[in-house]
Amino acid sequence: MTKRYWNITFEEMMEAGVHFGHGTRKWNPRMAPYISAKRKGIHITNLTRTARFLSEACDLVFDAASRGKQFLIVGTKKKAADSVARAAIRARCHYVNKKWLGGMLTNWYTTETRLHKFRDLRTEQKTGRLNCLPKRDAAILKRQLSHLETYLGGIKYMTGLPDIIIIVDQQEEYTALRECITLGIPTICLIDTNCDPDLADISIPANDDAIASIRLILNKLVFAICEGRSSSIRNS
């Protein structure tokens, strides 16, 4: 994997509040190497480590994108949802930002069946066939479509398991992370001071509660993905 310069500055990380961790009572001792200080009852993340692992993650996704690999970005809590959707759409990645349905990856056959149903209903809606049905039947199918759009809308074009998964907030998305570990899918995880840094393939220590922090980390990663895709086009 080639090392590249991703212009990750301490100033922008400080401005986004990347360095603010959880209260000192809410921490995982395994995060000790990633914490530089305590301030007013809050752990302060070591931004040198953040920059290092974020850079490594950018190198990884750049190389993967240049080889046509597929990405899934997961972040379902309210503070992350909008940033996840925007970042994923910008980089043409799949995403889950509402709720992780258990077995979404480990029970891929069921997920694929739901996606086929979702695509069929969308086609029927676009062609106007739903409006030709009796009102009660049409209402039931429209409710199904709305439900599927909410939970599967970000993966509607996913035709197989993703190659790399980016996770915002390890604790919130623990079920998704465990599924990735079970299937051997590489993960990049944004981890706060209450997380376990040993679970993901690349753990990026950062504030997972501040919108600005989440957006900064995601923007760096999707920029690297976009650059990787562009390099693939230039070299083809």
TrEMBL record:
Signal peptide, first to last residue: none
GO CC annotations on file: chloroplast; mitochondrial small ribosomal subunit
A Pfam family matched in the record: Ribosomal_S2
Presence of keyword Iron: no
InterPro entries in UniProt: Ribosomal_uS2 (IPR001865), Ribosomal_uS2_bac/mit/plastid (IPR005706), Ribosomal_uS2_CS (IPR018130), Ribosomal_uS2_flav_dom_sf (IPR023591)
PROSITE patterns (alphabetical): RIBOSOMAL_S2_1, RIBOSOMAL_S2_2
Keyword list, A-Z: Chloroplast, Plastid, Ribonucleoprotein, Ribosomal protein
SUPFAM superfamilies for this protein: Ribosomal protein S2 (SSF52313)
Location(s), subcellular: Plastid, Chloroplast
GO function terms (MF aspect): structural constituent of ribosome
Keyword Acetylation: no
GO biological process, one term: translation
Predominant subcellular localization, coarse grouping: plastid
Family according to the record: Belongs to the universal ribosomal protein uS2 family.
Listed name of the protein: Small ribosomal subunit protein uS2c
Species this chain originates from: Indigofera stachyodes
Lineage: Eukaryota, Viridiplantae, Streptophyta, Embryophyta, Tracheophyta
